[in-house]
Design brief:
Keywords: Hydrolase. This is Thioesterase domain-containing protein. Belongs to the thioesterase PaaI family. It comes from Polyrhizophydium stewartii. This protein is of the alpha+beta class. The protein has a single domain, classed as Hotdog Thioesterase (Thiol Ester Dehydrase, Chain A, Roll). Helix content is 23%, strand content 37%. It contains 3 helices and 6 strands; from the N terminus they run ααββαββββ. Strands 1-2-4-5-6-3 form a 6-stranded antiparallel sheet. The longest helix has 19 residues. The protein is globular, with a radius of gyration of 15 Å. The two termini are 15 Å apart.
Length: 160
């Protein structure tokens, strides 16, 4: 199902992670809702041991609410897809999963042209549940939080 077939190597570079994720967005998400947004995302940080990836995207006009800032619905869609991508990247066997809970707190705002970082952490993967957390921040400014939350997924088991 996922384009990820094995976990990343401990010595994987950010550029290699970026290419793997961009390939995933171009193929797996090619015709899904939000595909144009996901295809603008770039991996800009990676910590394989901590199962953490940072993805960066530009805020565009199609992502805005009527006030002219990044829409909460766009944030949640990006959070869902980005954390699911991190889960598939670090734990390929758990990629086939469905959301049980996604909670987000909206803290700050961003405008068209801003770059936003999404830090995704896979915190735990059990037999049937996977847990991730995420933070949206101004690009390169991890202390300038825009949104933060957690994502819980039920891991589907393949039928034999």
């Amino acid at each position: 199902m996922s384009t990820f077939t094995k976990p990343p190597r401990a010595d994987m570079t950010v550029a290699e992670a970026d290419e793997a994720m961009r390939h995933h967005y171009r193929t797996f998400y090619a015709s899904c809702y939000g595909a144009p947004i996901m295809q603008t995302m770039r991996a800009t940080g990676l910590d394989v041991a901590a199962k953490t990836v940072v993805l960066t995207f530009p805020v565009t006009d199609t992502m805005l609410n009527p006030v002219g800032t990044l829409h909460g619905g766009a944030i949640v869609m990006i959070a869902d897809t980005a954390t699911s991508t991190a889960l598939g990247f670090f734990e390929p066997a758990a990629f086939a999963s469905v959301t049980v809970d996604l909670t987000c707190q909206f803290i700050g705002a961003s405008r068209p042209g801003d770059l936003v970082d999404v830090r995704c952490v896979v915190t735990k993967v059990g037999k049937s549940m996977a847990y991730m957390r995420f933070d949206f921040t101004e690009h390169g400014k991890p202390d300038k939080v825009l949104a933060s939350g957690v994502h819980t997924k039920f891991v589907l088991k393949p039928k034999m």
